[in-house]
Structures are given as C-alpha cells and as structure tokens.
Amino acid sequence: MHRLLLLVASLLALSGCHAEHAEAKRLDAACEGGEIKSCGLLAERLQTGRYVLRDESRAATLFTRACDGGLGDGCASLGVLHQRGRGVKRDSVRAVRLFRQACDRDGLDGCTRLGILHRTGDGVPRDVAQAGALFTRACDGGNLSGCAQLGALLAAGEGMTRDDAKAASLFQRACDAKVAPGCLGLARLHASGAGVARNDSLSLALYDRACDAEEATACFELAGVYESGRGAPQNYQRAARLYRQACESRHGEACYRLAGLYRNGAGVYRDSSEAARHTSEACTLGFDAACPPKPRKS
Q1: Could you report the per-residue pLDDT of 238-261, keeping only the tens digit for each?
Q2: Where is the signal peptide, in residue numbers (predicted)?
Q3: What is the CATH number of domain 125-213?
Q4: pLDDT at position 13 over 70
Q5: What is the reported pLDDT for 297?
Q6: Of the candidates 251, 215, 221, which has an alpha carbon nearest to the alpha carbon of residue 239?
Q7: Residue 211: closest CA among 236, 252, 243, 189
Q8: In terms of CATH architecture, what is 216-290?
Q9: What average pLDDT does range 14-25 have in this prediction?
C-alpha cells in the first residue's frame, strides 16, 4: 500500500512537471507569434529557472520585447536586471529610466522600485514625499511590495506623520503574501511593541521568515538579537551563521560584525585572518566604520 501511494505521488509530480514544461513551450510559441504578455511570462520563468533552464540573458531579451510592446511590468523587470547587472550590462541610469517608464504604464513594481530610489537618493534626487506618493500608488493598485515600503515610511515617520498601527496593518498584508520586507517591518514592530503587542517569539518567527526569503537585513537584525541576547537566549553560533548569510548577500555591516566574532572567538574559532578578510569585505561593501582611517591632510 505504501509503495502504491509513493508511485501515485511520483506520477502526480511528473505530470505536474510535464504540464509546466508544456506551458513553457506554449508561452514560447505565443511569444514568437507576437503575444507580448507571453514574452513577459516566459522571461519570468527563464529568470528564475522555473521548469526551464535558467537563462537571464534571454530573459532580458524577452523583457525588452515586452517593454517595447508597451507592457509596464516588462519594463520594471528589465530595469531590475540592469540595476543588478544580471544577463545584461549593469546600468543604473537605464534602470531608473525603465522603472519610470514602467510606472507610467501602470507597471506598479516599477513605481515601488522608483520610490525606493527616491527614498535613498540612489541615482535620483532624494525626495521622500515623492517616494511616499509612489508607494501609495503602488499599494493602492495591489502591489504589496509598495505596501511594505509605505509601511516603512509610516513606522519611521519619514515624510509623513508616524502611524505604527497603520504601518503594522500594511506590513501584515505584505507579509501574508510572502513579501519579505513586510515580515521584516512587522518583526521590528513586535520587537518594540510599537503599534502592536510586544511579542518576542512572534518577532523572531517573522525575522526568520524574512531571512529565509533572502532579506539580508532581516538576517542581520536577527543575528544581532542572538548576539546580544535581547529578545532571545544568547547564541553566538547562530549569530555567526546569520551574519555570514547576510554578509554573503552583500550586507556590509554584517561582514563587520562577523569579523568581530572571529576576532573574539565568539561562536566561531578565533581567527585573525578571517577577521581581517571580513573587515576588508565590509569596507568594500561601503560600511565606512570598517575602513582604515584616512590620513589627515597636513
């Protein structure tokens, strides 16, 4: 009986896999036939390797076709590839232009990403009010990443009146849809008891969820909880693993904190060469406190 159940489960899995392959072929044929939306959907699969061989270069070609055909979401996705230098040459100026083009065409992810740049002043003038307007537009249109970003502004009181309760509601909506920044924001509120009841165990679970979704800041902040022992039992080994995970995702301060653990032999073997390596890496990633002091001008 057990073997029969395993056989049935295997056949169902194979049939599902076959169906996904068939769908990918259908999208390919439809795209070649001029159906722009299919080009975008196929590009998404090629970008992630979902039931097709991962090919970010071809994904970029198809996102370009979708964008040129007027599909806002295609412009936003192409912008992300240019922003990260994946499958195409890294070009932050073109990424900004594509995000703006996407937003103008109701590609709401483009609005969110453009808002993030305006919040930080990365490649565009820093304009928190503009960022808030873009996040609001995206969130109102159903883009939950936009809701998470709007929640972050409300929780910080940045460019708008602070409202922790409204921020918590927005974070919850985003987190329920597996949007990692939403889970991160909600974790912070439960850790501090701002706008929601303080709940350390729920905060840890939310940090974990966001970290598992490759939100480097969540891994970094969770590592800090375990290193300090505030909000969870102190656990240097777990802190080291989480700092390493965030460092590998290019979080400069996480590399610096990991260097400190190697320097002190906390949770890892004391190793001055590893400490020096991670300190240098932190500096390269832009964490200025890790960089050697600049010589004073005489």
Answers
A1: 999 999 999 999 999 999 999 999
A2: 1-19
A3: 1.25.40.10
A4: no
A5: 64
A6: 221
A7: 243
A8: Alpha Horseshoe (1.25)
A9: 68
Can you tell me the distance from the alpha carbon of 116 to that of 267, in angstroms, rounded to the nearest whole number?
35
Could you read off the pLDDT of 212-229 as tens digits, one per residue?
Answer: 999 999 999 999 999 999
Domain ranges in the chain are: 34-106, 125-213, 216-290
Q: Are 189 and 197 in contact (CB under 8 A)?
A: no
Q: Is 91 exposed, middle or buried (0-12, 13-18, 19+ CB in 10 A)?
A: middle
What is the pLDDT at residue 17? 56
Domain 34-106 has CATH 1.25.40.10: yes
Question: What tokens were used for 264?
Answer: 């002190």
Average pLDDT over all residues of the chain: 91
C-alpha to C-alpha distance for 242 and 253, rounded to whole angstroms: 12
The two three-digit tokens of residue 230, written as one number: 């505030």
Is the fold of 125-213 the same as that of 216-290?
Answer: yes
